[in-house]
């Protein structure tokens, strides 16, 4: 396939493919396109977002089988080959001979790159070293002075993962407030999000609609893929995870009051739509639910709002729900409560 043809074929499976670089398109055409088509034949859609427990178990199975097949003696050697220079050449040869890309992604309807990153996160022993000691925090500050944001270098010096050292430095680099948010901090957070959203939309050549109330954008864009480290820098007194959590709580509160939610959707309609969508998915466990799909069906509200609605439904309507499976809870609500709700509507 040429580049344009590959991009066009991938667009069927990845809606945001136009924003992906040419080099990534080439890799996806080789690693993912055939898999995606095979999953389509089976009626399985390509997934994004949080990995389910079932997918995590499949990754563990795939990694274990590849280690048995090749004789490589640890997942760390397989996924972090650069840490073992003396075995690097042999491991690369075994990966090529035994189709590492295909084997690691077997049975998982996601882009190969995301599966690979997930596997690295799961099997990196440097991710499970517990809390940072006072001495480690001082070392982290010192290494950052020497190497800047070269987290790969710093992670090697500290024997911690790249993500771990970057997140920890974000927490300790300045005086962080851990108490209740002040009105001034909340205002800074809202302005910071507005600034980055405006720039993001302008970059994507989106239409900007302005009013006295500020910038209006799709609600999904307001709660996903925001540059939290940049927002953290603009707020100044909170680290990025605090900013993300506070922003999500602000969105949930506003939307649950109907300030962002479509005004014609009433409480009964939301409950009925939620119940029907969950029932139609026919999943056995809550971890397999596509909450984004249901969020869109309810007008683009945050997934936390949807999950809170479902929790309230089962607690209110299902006796002894703690002892029931997810599918039993849904079946009970559909049989005993849905007709009543529809009649009431």
UniProtKB/TrEMBL annotation:
<dbReference type="InterPro" id="IPR017930">
    <property type="entry name" value="Myb_dom"/>
</dbReference>
<dbReference type="InterPro" id="IPR009057">
    <property type="entry name" value="Homeodomain-like_sf"/>
</dbReference>
<dbReference type="GO" id="GO:0006363">
    <property type="term" value="P:termination of RNA polymerase I transcription"/>
</dbReference>
<dbReference type="Pfam" id="PF13921">
    <property type="entry name" value="Myb_DNA-bind_6"/>
</dbReference>
<dbReference type="InterPro" id="IPR053078">
    <property type="entry name" value="TTF1-like"/>
</dbReference>
<protein>
    <submittedName>
        <fullName>TTF1 factor</fullName>
    </submittedName>
</protein>
<feature type="domain" description="Myb-like">
    <location>
        <begin position="124"/>
        <end position="172"/>
    </location>
</feature>
<dbReference type="InterPro" id="IPR001005">
    <property type="entry name" value="SANT/Myb"/>
</dbReference>
<feature type="domain" description="Myb-like">
    <location>
        <begin position="173"/>
        <end position="251"/>
    </location>
</feature>
<dbReference type="GO" id="GO:0005730">
    <property type="term" value="C:nucleolus"/>
</dbReference>
<dbReference type="GO" id="GO:0003682">
    <property type="term" value="F:chromatin binding"/>
</dbReference>
<feature type="domain" description="HTH myb-type">
    <location>
        <begin position="124"/>
        <end position="161"/>
    </location>
</feature>
